[in-house]
Design brief:
Layout lengths: L6 H6 L8 E6 L4 H14 L4 E4 L11 E3 L2 E2 L2 H17 L6 H16 L3 E5 L15 E6 L7 H4 L3 H8 L9 E3 L5 H14 L3 E3 L5 H4 L8 H17 L7 H9 L8 E3 L2 H4 L5 E4 L4 H15 L7 E4 L7 H5 L8 E4 L16 H10 L7 E3 L4 H12 L4 E4 L2 H21 L2
Parallel strand pairs: 1-5, 1-6, 2-5, 6-7, 7-8, 10-14, 11-12, 11-14, 12-13
Antiparallel strand pairs: 2-3, 3-4, 9-10
């Protein structure tokens, strides 16, 4: 159950020191990538940096990093135990995400970070992460329709909720590709509280050193947001620009246009594309990538798809599926620490695929058997591409399966 509000998280954090400054990132798409770029830049610049993003991908503690490395499990569990005891002792009744946020902030205090890069969980104004004390910069990434039942039915209403992370006198970087109506809402709120909006810009000497062709269009914009915010937040006299380029070029953000080898699970050689596209905007990006990079003419693509309940499935599938494609529908498993997240029934995914023109003979209902879905996809795909998409929770399940299979292979080879 999601219950937005700041009272419980504020009680949880009452005894948690927050001397560090923060870059707070809200939006519908691009938040995770912007956070990854920022933490890489800060780490490369010698700033001790903590990052908190959600959801986790493989283990619950991988949502917290220190200097671009996943926090040690022992450190995470020690902080989590402290937070859980505080929640129980003071009868706070905090939600799972509030407990996780407080745990991350406890880790940051213990690890003595200088700057935190914090991704909003849901919305902005009433999100648990908005209880942080010292913001250096805020960021509004690309905004679209998502979580309407919590944030509003129009993109403008959603933008207003996300703009709630802004603070008086703290500059806010906004993705300049947002539509004018969104920009107006954010600009109006900035004037109301007394702060400045800085539109992201791809015109900089730093970006001139990179090849735009190496980035998908949306990632170029995400990088522009991150660098603009970094430029505002980094206050040391020494210029770190010469160290930023290698940091950006070597960045790896799992679950976003990620190529994986699933031979250990299916026996099929070659690469499989993995992407957590879970709303219309991210699906449009994925569809453009697949059509531009993987499809050859009218070649079929074989999809393994899952989705969370309540997602706008028709809008997600429209840019992905062609009539000649094959589709395996699967349900992801329970999400550790996020019991409110439920998988969409597979029959709903297959019905939506049929409405998109995919023949029922090219579909497979895998239930909750991801391994079976992958084996079916590997068999019917032939030499064509296989894409696993629709949910970051599906991405998590696949990465865990791969880790387990690779661990077994490693043990057998000893």
């Amino acid at each position: 159950m999601i219950e937005l509000g700041l009272a419980r998280i504020s009680s949880l954090l009452r005894h948690t020191p927050q001397p560090w400054k923060a870059i707070h990132v809200a939006g519908t798409n691009g938040k995770g990538s912007i956070c990854a770029y920022l933490s890489a830049m800060l780490h490369a610049s010698g700033v001790r940096c903590g990052r908190f993003t959600s959801p986790h991908l493989i283990d619950r503690w991988d949502c917290v990093t220190i200097d671009d490395r996943t926090v040690r499990e022992s450190v995470f569990r020690e902080a989590e135990d402290l937070v859980l005891k505080r929640n129980q002792k003071e009868n706070i009744g905090a939600s799972e995400f509030e407990l996780l946020t407080a745990t991350a902030f406890e880790v940051f205090a213990k690890e003595k970070i200088e700057m935190g890069v914090i991704e909003v969980g849901l919305g902005g104004r009433l999100d648990a992460t908005n209880a942080m004390e010292k913001k250096a910069v805020t960021i509004i990434s690309k905004i679209g329709l998502d979580h309407q039942s919590f944030l509003g039915n129009t993109i403008e209403e959603i933008a207003r909720e996300k703009a709630g992370i802004m603070r008086p006198g703290v500059p806010c970087v906004m993705d300049s590709t947002n539509p004018p109506s969104v920009q107006k809402v954010v600009q109006d709120y900035a004037k109301e509280i007394g702060t400045d909006i800085v539109l992201s810009s791809t015109e900089s000497s730093f970006l001139d050193e990179l090849s735009q062709e190496d980035f998908a269009p949306h990632q170029w914009q995400n990088l522009a947001c991150a660098y603009t915010a970094f430029h505002l937040a980094y206050t040391k006299l020494e210029s770190p620009l010469h160290r930023l380029l290698p940091a950006i070029q070597n960045i790896n953000w799992p679950g976003r246009l990620q190529t994986v080898d699933i031979r250990s699970l299916t026996g099929r050689p070659g690469a499989t594309l993995l992407d957590g596209a879970h709303n219309v905007q991210s699906a449009e990006v994925l569809g453009a990538y697949v059509d531009g990079k993987l499809r050859k003419g009218s070649q079929k693509v074989t999809w393994v798809l899952a989705a969370s309940q309540g997602k706008e499935l028709e809008g997600i599938l429209k840019p992905l599926l062609h009539q000649q494609d094959c589709v395996a529908a699967v349900q992801f498993g329970p999400v550790d620490g996020m019991p409110w997240v439920q998988a969409m029934p597979t029959y709903e995914i297959l019905e939506a695929a049929f409405e998109r023109g995919v023949d029922s003979g090219r579909m497979y209902d895998a239930g909750d058997n991801l391994s079976g879905a992958l084996r079916w996809a590997a068999t019917v795909a032939g030499p064509g591409p296989v894409v696993v998409a629709g949910s970051l929770y599906l991405v998590s399940d696949l990465l865990r399966l791969l880790r387990k299979a690779n661990d077994i292979e490693a043990q057998l080879s000893k």
